Amino acid sequence: MDLKTLCELNGASGDEHAVRKAILTASRLVCDDVHIDRSGNVIAHKKGASKDSPRVALAAHMDEVGFIVVGHTEDGLLRFRPIGGIDPRVIVSKWVALGDVKGVIGAKAIHLQSPQDRETVLDYKGLYIDIGAKDKAEAERLCPIGTYAYFDVSFEPFGEGMVVSKALDDRVGCYNLLRILQNDYDCDLTVCFVTNEEVGLRGSAGAAFAAEADIAVILEGTSANDMGDIPERFKVCSVNQGVAVSFMDRASIADRKLFKEMLAIAKEQEIPHQVKQGITGGNDAASFQRAKKGCRTVVLSVPCRYIHSSSSVCSLNDVDAQYALLDAFLKSREVK
Amino acid sequence: MQIEQFLREVTFLLGLSGNEQEAARYVAKAFEPLCDEVHMTPLNSVVGYKKGTGNGPKVMFAAHIDEIGLNVTKIEEDGSLRMGSIGGVDPRILPGMRVRVHGRETLLGVVGAKPPHILTEEERKKNYKRDDLAVDLGMPAKKVKELVQVGDLIQLEHRFVELKNGRFTTKTADDRACVAILYEAMKLLQGRTHEADLFFVATSQEEIGANGAMTAAFAVDPDFGVALDVCHASTPDAPKEATSDLVGLDSAIGPFIQPVLRKKLMDVAAKENVVVQSSVSPGRTGTDADVMGITRAGIPMVLLSLPLKYMHTTVELFDMRTLEEGGRLIAAFSCAVKNTWEDELWT
Amino acid sequence: MLRNTLKTLLEPWGPTGNEHHVVETIKTLLAGHVDSVEVDALGNLIVEKKGTDPDGRRIMFAAHMDHIGLVVTSIEKEGFLRVMPVGGINIYRTDARHVVFENGVEGVAAIQPVKEGHPQFSDLFVDIGAKDKEEAEKMVQVGDMCVYAPTVFDVGKYRVAGPAMDNRTACAILVELLLYAENQKHTIIGVFTAQEEVGLRGATVAAYRVNPDWGLAIDVTGTADTPEVKFPAVNLGDGPAVKFVDRSMVASPVIREALFEAAEKAGVKMQREVLPYGGTDGGAIQRARAGIPTGTLSIPCRYIHSACETVDIRDMEDALKVLLQFVDL
């Protein structure tokens, strides 16, 4: 399944079914042992070459950030809140889809704004989705509370080898895990496509509990802050400089040996890579590290500009680098 | 026992988060005649087990038994007590509050407030902070030090009052009113058949991180979970989106809730003519549901809420009829749960 | 001797996530005195000393090995290192501070001038004497950590100051418990935990593995006996404290009561502690699996999370006496 298809599917935390279905189908083509667990995760298991094979878990999250309808105004507008972290400043004047219903996130026209208006940051309480409904009753009928809303955008290649899309975080990870699943390795491999990462690393908790892995590698999309007049130390990582390997973030500290090993393999096999220069963010590595008796973890990320917006950007070279490094790592874990 | 009496008694009992023993013992005793087996967990949750008829799924119901309160952090030179909070106690409710201090004896105390006459204009404009307040025990410091020590628990004043229209007010309706819902349900289930194995758990420590629910769920290892807690009922000063009507139960929609399981609950409610409002929780629900959902290999959860005005005060207010409807719904749900539901969750 | 054990344990470099040197030091100290030794996936050191009573309890004691530090996030072209905190670093206590890296490189951490308001961690940098980025990269890498240099000194007759009292003090007490407990009733499982300072992570997985009957964390706590500090109402030199509450847990009543009972047997007067902030490994143990009755024994310490954390040796000695009774109750 290609990256475009994956990114254009709508599936925010708690509403992953379209993504889950597609990944379930794609996994079953290349793996006999695939099931859906109690958190709605898709878990694919490939037995190791021997009973002494290292137990490795791989994870990427299926859910993207999105919105949910929480109420309706008298004149038929929808009140909404974010699912996961979306800065309200990036959503004004964007198109959304709620199932088959189209809508827009409007705001006061600039002509009607006072100088003070132009300084005020709109927060979610002051924003609304307009679906063209004529009154509250119609709005409630078409989009009752609990309806999910998504950025209505397409995945487009642009520039040189770059793409702009919603949901690169973390469909790039899902995409690469599906590619890994096509191969055979010596390790005992549990590949986890998890739910609810964006609202608190929740799906991965159950997956990690069941996987009982010795090592876990998490594939993610991470913030690249490399455009504009930014001092080096705030860039975090850069697009088109290869897969970013993390030594630490807010939710986990990478296993030191695994971190060094990833860098060594990347260097030896000439896979473009960089060290993520920051400790921001948190991801499913935390769930695996703390499950049961603990596990050694490391995170490999594709740098994404404008993450958690309708138009995040990444380089296809970096996506391939993430795949190549994980593939090389798994091959290096042969049981001799 | 009638529900009103149960509530009146249980809301009085001492059970601050982490020290629920007294309230837990009462609940265990009340559950006993209604269950096949009752036991207390290492962290003082009460588990009432009622065996089902089939190879039924395991369902765990959770309502928390712990209350918010205060403790003694320091005894001052004049014998007054400085307070720390257990769970989220709004300091604005404290001035003029009568409290029970559980030292070597149980003592009546008063949280002092400066008389308005001597306050400056400035002072009167600001809210009291807990650090400015102290408990007055009305006795000399020497006597205080014999009876009270740092770490002793302080309970807020208890008054169980019936208001008009079947409304009641008391402390600790959060969440012993929902423990009462479980009690009602258990009474209704006497003589009814259910496939599922039912675990009615009065959980501990919800107000300080839900450790009671987490560890009880680990031990029970249920297939489905239903958390019961209070939610905010509308008051003039609260945003409409964040509150529910006082009359009628509520069930949240959102990523922390399993949507198919929720629909099953709503279908049962519709069949039984029990009113259940819908609300949205875009993230954490702030109840036992949150930790239960990620315990072990994950537990599909649904949340049932009793609307409550003035939460975390001594005058929490709810509608008794709604509470009783909650009992009816949980009993009906218990009889409706089937093994086949698990296959329907993710399709 | 506690003072010597403490000084030995204050030496190894061990910021959160990099506790391996502390593990080696402790292993050496305990060699021949314990029945089993293992190190788990997160780097916790788990040792066991069996009790004599076949119906005795398995008690898990937790003392964390890690202490706070700074991690290098980028290297400037002028050779300065940009850093972020690992654990609860107080930025004011990190200005013009002597720091050391694992490979021995030493430097000065400093706060650059701030235009207005409070300094942020992005205003912090470390000077290792490199003239440019190229030279710096030969000395340290992005991802490397540094800690406050381990300068330890005596303060008056009974007190000792230095970085890492939080929590090598507790490690020292736990080491001595394992050395001196003899034919005790209950089984002692000594867990020297990793990664406490970033959220009790080591203790979480260790508690799952060990699944003890009881848990007891040993950790330092603040005092209210220096100017203008009110809480917790605990004094340095007045003995160890039974913790009632902190942000990570309400101590289980059965453990609190056992601590008081052990103290009475040992002839030690215990202080009582209610902490409005902070947490210890006890919180992680209490919520493991089906729940474990757990408490914390606190050692008073001034200036926590600084380079001059100060403890009183008499408090430590009393704590050890209490624990020797605790394992025999």
Please describe what this structure looks like.
Chain A folds into two domains: 3-64 and 166-332, Zn peptidases (Aminopeptidase), CATH 3.40.630.10; 66-151, Beta Barrel (Elongation Factor Tu (Ef-tu), domain 3). In chain A, 27% of the residues lie in helices and 26% in strands. Chain A has helices spanning 3-8, 17-30, 115-119, 136-142, 168-181, 203-211, 256-268, 285-290, 316-332, and strands at 33-36, 42-46, 55-61, 66-72, 78-83, 94-98, 101-106, 128-130, 148-151, 156-158, 162-165, 188-194, 215-223, 243-245, 273-275, 296-304, 312-315. In chain A, a hairpin with a 5-residue loop joins β4 and β5 (78-83). The longest helix of chain A is centred in the last third of the chain and has 17 residues, at 316-332. Chain A is globular and about 65 Å long. The two termini of chain A are 33 Å apart. The mean pLDDT of chain A is 95. Chain B has two domains: 3-67 and 171-344, Aminopeptidase (3-Layer(aba) Sandwich), CATH 3.40.630.10; 69-156, Elongation Factor Tu (Ef-tu), domain 3 (Beta Barrel), CATH 2.40.30. In chain B, β4 and β5 form a beta hairpin. With 347 residues, chain B is α+β, with helices and mostly antiparallel strands. In chain C, 56% of the residues are buried. The two termini of chain C are 24 Å apart. Chains in contact: A-B, A-C, B-C. The A-B interface holds A 12-15, 17, 20, 36-41, 63, 68-71, 79, 81-83, 125, 144-146, 196, 199-200, 202-203, 205-207, 209-210 and B 239-241, 253-257, 259, 278-280, 282-284, 293-294, 296-300, 345-346.
Helices, strands, pairings?
The complex is a heterotrimer of chains A (336), B (347) and C (329).
Chain A: H1 3-8, H2 17-30, E1 33-36, E2 42-46, E3 55-61, E4 66-72, E5 78-83, E6 94-98, E7 101-106, H3 115-119, E8 128-130, H4 136-142, E9 148-151, E10 156-158, E11 162-165, H5 168-181, E12 188-194, H6 203-211, E13 215-223, E14 243-245, H7 256-268, E15 273-275, H8 285-290, E16 296-304, E17 312-315, H9 316-332
Parallel strand pairs in A: 3-12, 3-13, 13-16, 14-15
Antiparallel strand pairs in A: 1-2, 2-12, 4-5, 4-9, 6-7, 6-9, 7-8, 10-11, 11-17, 14-16
Helix pairs in contact in A: 5-9
Chain B: H1 3-12, H2 21-31, E1 37-40, E2 46-50, E3 58-64, E4 69-75, E5 81-86, E6 98-102, E7 106-111, H3 121-125, E8 135-136, H4 141-147, E9 153-156, E10 161-162, E11 167-170, H5 173-188, E12 197-203, H6 211-220, E13 224-232, E14 249-253, H7 259-271, E15 276-280, H8 288-293, E16 301-308, E17 316-319, H9 320-336, H10 341-344
Parallel strand pairs in B: 3-12, 3-13, 13-16, 14-15
Antiparallel strand pairs in B: 1-2, 2-12, 4-5, 4-9, 6-7, 6-9, 7-8, 10-11, 11-17
Helix pairs in contact in B: 1-5, 5-9, 7-9
Chain C: H1 2-10, H2 20-30, E1 36-39, E2 45-49, E3 58-64, E4 69-75, E5 81-86, E6 97-101, E7 106-111, E8 124-127, H3 133-139, E9 145-148, E10 153-155, E11 159-162, H4 165-180, E12 187-193, H5 201-210, E13 214-221, E14 241-245, H6 253-266, E15 271-274, H7 281-286, E16 294-300, E17 309-312, H8 313-326
Parallel strand pairs in C: 3-12, 3-13, 13-16, 14-15
Antiparallel strand pairs in C: 1-2, 2-12, 4-5, 4-9, 5-8, 6-7, 6-9, 7-8, 10-11, 11-17, 14-16
Helix pairs in contact in C: 1-4, 4-8, 6-8
